[in-house]
Write a structure and sequence with these properties.
Elements: H1 4-23, H2 29-43, H3 48-83, H4 85-95, H5 102-114, H6 119-136, H7 141-158, H8 163-172, H9 176-205, H10 208-211, H11 230-254, H12 259-264, H13 267-285, H14 291-322, H15 324-332, H16 340-356, H17 359-371, H18 379-391, H19 399-407, H20 412-440
Helix pairs in contact: 1-2, 1-15, 2-3, 2-14, 3-8, 3-13, 3-14, 4-5, 4-6, 4-11, 5-6, 5-7, 5-9, 6-7, 6-19, 7-9, 7-20, 8-9, 8-14, 8-17, 8-18, 9-11, 9-18, 9-20, 11-13, 14-17, 16-17, 16-18, 17-18, 18-20, 19-20
Length: 441
């Protein structure tokens, strides 16, 4: 019989083993998570065969719900980037607002473009536009860079169908529409408030001589290239959101949605609708000849995300099978019915983010750990807390840090004052939102 203290300790050891393999041995995160799962199950008395079976079940259960939607979402993002739709969204939003609101327009641009894609892709697509905008205005360079960071990070962290918030309902057992409402209803305000705070804070610490290496993109981009309209560019992003929220709204208003509405609001159909819209736009702008290659290019990052996300689901399922999460709660005295569980989810995500860099690994792992805790706190509050912690402090062990630093021509200090500072501020407001949901539901 494995004692309660040992069960709780096994979670800590399993996470430590996983982090050691990722950070010091340079193992693939998915492989590292599987190794950590093996230790967790075997050391906690689950048995050899049952541990392996639980790993497969946990991986498969999560992939059943989110595998195809993740693939479709990454394809949508790739098609928008290649067709010029992503840049069109950003240029339109920043072009219709007064000068003093440009940082907020940039943040919203980053958020909208990042909804169906990785943070890295959104930032890569929009960086030339942001640099060009800076050259045409008197806005400080860290303001335009940091605003884009906050917007893209906010959508990537809070709003499905990016992988972590898309996985949250499956892991924590609550409706996807609830995550969509929480992500949009709290994520977007958090992005705007965090941008306002960031703009004021970065002015106090920025030193252009020390923080900038060399700003890139001296030559203007070719404006003669055909681009889709703003409305058509936004359609692949808006369609899945509308279809998913349609089901949620119908359930709230009529008690239950019709079978056809429920069909339209499923993850697979909603994301497929967005993908078909993105394909139509891509073909109209770029042509059919490039379509197959672009979709094939999207499958490579999709495979990486699926592997990490699925392995995180396996790790969480093994923890649930051993009931180690409840043992950890009992040991540290965190009650399942109070706000302490929300702060625990944030803390776990933050520690994992600081330690190993990947927000995907940190968020998924934090959610899977708290998923095994018996609590009356609503799933969307736990998800926002875990995801906010997983976003909190990105630094030199995070690939996103280097994407921002290198693409915008910053020194390491400049990256810390834009990427690290911006995400840290946003994570605080994400936690505030999580606490608010927990108190009101």
């Amino acid at each position: 019989m494995v004692t309660t203290p040992l069960l709780a300790a096994n979670i800590v050891i399993a996470v430590a083993v996983t982090l050691f393999l990722i950070i010091y041995v340079d193992f693939d995160p998915a492989v590292s998570l599987v190794v950590g799962s093996l230790y967790m199950g075997i050391a906690s008395g689950l048995g050899l065969n049952e541990t392996v079976s639980s790993i497969g079940t946990g991986f498969g259960n999560l992939m059943t719900g989110i595998g195809l939607p993740i693939i479709f979402g990454i394809m949508i993002g790739m098609l928008l980037a290649e067709s010029g739709g992503a840049r069109k969204i950003a240029v339109t939003l920043t072009g219709v607002v007064p000068h003093r609101f440009i940082p907020y327009a940039l943040a919203l641009s980053g958020a909208i473009v990042a909804i169906p894609v990785f943070f890295d892709v959104a930032f890569l697509v929009l960086t030339p536009m942001v640099v060009a905008l800076w050259r045409e205005t008197d806005i400080d360079y860290p303001v335009v860079v940091g605003s884009l960071v906050i917007g893209a990070a906010g959508a990537h962290t809070f709003i499905p169908p990016t992988p972590n918030p898309l996985a949250a309902p499956e892991i924590l057992g609550f409706p996807l529409g609830q995550m969509m409402l929480a992500g949009l209803g709290l994520g977007i305000p958090a992005v705007l408030i965090a941008t306002a705070v960031y703009v004021r804070l970065v002015a106090l610490v920025w030193d252009a001589d020390e923080d900038i290496e060399e700003i890139p993109f001296e030559e203007a981009e070719d404006e003669g290239t055909k681009q889709p309209s703003f409305l058509s560019s936004i359609l692949p992003i808006a369609a899945p959101i509308v279809l998913i929220l349609l089901t949620t709204t119908s359930n709230a208003v009529f008690g239950s949605a019709s079978p056809f509405v429920q069909f339209l609001g499923t993850r697979i159909i909603a994301m497929l609708a967005g993908l078909l819209a993105a394909i139509a736009i891509f073909v109209s702008v770029v042509g059919k000849a490039e379509l197959s290659e672009t979709l094939s290019d999207a499958t490579r990052p999709a495979g990486m995300v699926l592997a990490i996300t699925g392995a995180g689901g396996a790790f969480g399922y093994v923890i649930q099978q051993t009931e180690a999460a409840n043992a950890l709660v009992d040991l540290i005295g965190v009650g399942g019915d109070g706000l302490a569980i929300v702060f625990l989810a944030f803390f776990i995500g933050m520690v994992l983010r600081v330690a190993q860099g990947s927000g995907t690994v940190a968020g998924i792992t934090a959610m899977t750990i708290v998923a095994g805790i018996e609590t009356s706190v609503t799933g969307s509050a736990l998800a926002l807390a875990a995801l906010s912690g997983g976003m909190s402090i990105g630094h030199i062990n995070d690939s996103g840090f280097w994407v921002v630093t290198e693409l915008t021509g910053l020194e390491v200090t400049g990256g810390i004052k834009t990427y690290t500072l911006g995400e840290a501020i946003l994570s605080v407001f994400g936690l505030v939102g999580a606490v608010g949901i927990a108190l009101l539901t």
